[in-house]
Amino acid sequence: MSYRVAVAGASGYVGGELLRLILQHPELELGAVTANTNAGQSLGSLHPHLPAIADRLLVETNEANLAGHDVVFLALPHATSAEVAKTLSDSTLVLDCGADFRLEDPSAWEKFYGTPHAGTWTYGMPELTLAEGGKQRGRLRDQKRVAVPGCNVTALTLALAPGLTAGLFDPTDIVSVMSVGTSGAGRALKSDLLASEVLGSARAYGVGGVHRHTPEMEQNLTKAAGVRASVSFTPVLVPISRGILAVNTVRVADKFDFETLKLVYQDAYSDEPFIQLLSDQLPTTAAVLGSNNVQISLAFDQHTGRVVVVSAIDNLVKGTAGAAIQSMNLALGLAETSGLMFGAVAP
Ligand SMILES: NC(=O)C1=CN([C@@H]2O[C@H](COP(=O)(O)OP(=O)(O)OC[C@H]3O[C@@H](n4cnc5c(N)ncnc54)[C@H](OP(=O)(O)O)[C@@H]3O)[C@@H](O)[C@H]2O)C=CC1
Ligand SMILES: CC(=O)N[C@@H](CCC(=O)OP(=O)(O)O)C(=O)O
């Protein structure tokens, strides 16, 4: 069976990555590709790396163009997704790559995004371990509305969730500092993202607990821990186009043993097709580039009583488009790995 899929926001970075993944998915057929300012342009002019669909034209993002599809991916700015979602049929599977439907607490949404809360959809992170037992994947089957996680959030959550679920980490003492690539900021022109501002430099942003991913991180880690988790998060923009390298540290709980922690992570992740636990290497963004993989390493800093969990993802694959396809597979009852079992690009 083939599912007809539309991509809203197909001219952007996430839209382009969705197109790349859709083209190599055996059960998907590409339907409408929509845009805003780029409506009328050919995909070839915007995504020259996808010659198979170079002649396809972008159309306007509206109800008529998005109707009649089995699956619609929204790769749109925050708030725009929520508006477009209102026009889509209840029987269509809709996956929002933006933030509009990720948070459960309306006050957290309003505090960090400054607009009314649009609602909450099923959260698309299959590997998330839950304090109540099982993993988030069990909740995705047959869903029609899925909120795809934030990219920075994915790098932190998958790094710490098993240790929190096992009660081996103190959920109130988590610090995450991430090196993040420029494509995370999208394709729209921004003066502080000019090559001359970014190349040869690194700079922190969203400093002081104000980054909008903080409540989503805390929501996930609270679900993993079963008690309230709090996170100090600081991203650092580095001159790479793709990738997130997260250095996450957490104070250990009273009953901590590093050998037990390693067994907990093996138990949680050894059967996960997209998560690699490294024991004799450290994660790098280069090693996951273009893939849906997550690399994770564990170290115990006995001197300070903290565990350092390093994780690496490609923000446009496991950080968005790949995660969206993975959740789509689960929601449709397809093999979770369908269309996603490709390696990274190196060097
Ligand atoms: N980049 C990343 O690494 C990640 C991004 N996300 C989220 O995914 C979403 C897309 O991000 P990204 O691709 O990076 O962003 P881009 O800026 O690269 O692309 C945005 C897309 O939305 C379209 N668009 C903009 N305004 C409107 C509007 N008013 N109505 C309809 N369409 C509009 C643009 O069309 P046009 O070009 O024609 O103007 C373009 O196709 C965002 O919500 C982002 O936060 C999530 C995780 C990671
Ligand atoms: C470099 C850069 O700006 N990265 C973005 C990535 C976030 C993102 O795209 O996620 P949302 O879907 O939640 O918007 C940031 O840190 O805000």
Ranges where pLDDT stays below 50 over 5 or more residues in a row are: none
CATH topology of the largest domain: Dihydrodipicolinate Reductase, domain 2
Record field, number of beta strands: 14
Could you report the average pLDDT, rounded to the nearest whole number? Answer: 98
* Morphology: globular
Please give the order of strands in the largest beta sheet.
3-2-1-4-5-7-6
β content, as a range? 15-25%
Name the ligand types: NADPH dihydro-nicotinamide-adenine-dinucleotide phosphate, N-acetyl-L-glutamyl 5-phosphate
Main sheet properties: 7 strands, parallel
Distance between the termini: 37 Å
Active site: 151
Protein name: N-acetyl-gamma-glutamyl-phosphate reductase
GO molecular function: N-acetyl-gamma-glutamyl-phosphate reductase activity; NAD binding; NADP+ binding
Domain Semialdehyde dehydrogenase NAD-binding: 4-136
Structure description:
This protein folds into two domains: 3-149 and 318-332, 3-Layer(aba) Sandwich (Rossmann fold), CATH 3.40.50.720; 152-315, Dihydrodipicolinate Reductase, domain 2, CATH 3.30.360.10. It is α/β, with parallel strands linked by helices and 347 residues long. Helix 1 (13-23) crosses helix 10 and helix 6 (151-165) runs parallel beside helix 8. Strand 4 (71-74), helix 4 (80-85) and strand 5 (93-96) form a beta-alpha-beta unit. It has helices spanning 13-23, 43-46, 63-66, 80-85, 106-113, 151-165, 195-198, 214-225, 258-269, 317-332, and strands at residues 3-8, 28-35, 59-60, 71-74, 93-96, 122-123, 145-147, 169-180, 203-204, 231-237, 244-252, 275-278, 294-301, 306-313. The chain has a seven-stranded parallel β-sheet. It is 27% helix and 23% strand. The mean pLDDT is 98. The chain has ten helices and 14 strands. It binds NADPH dihydro-nicotinamide-adenine-dinucleotide phosphate and N-acetyl-L-glutamyl 5-phosphate.
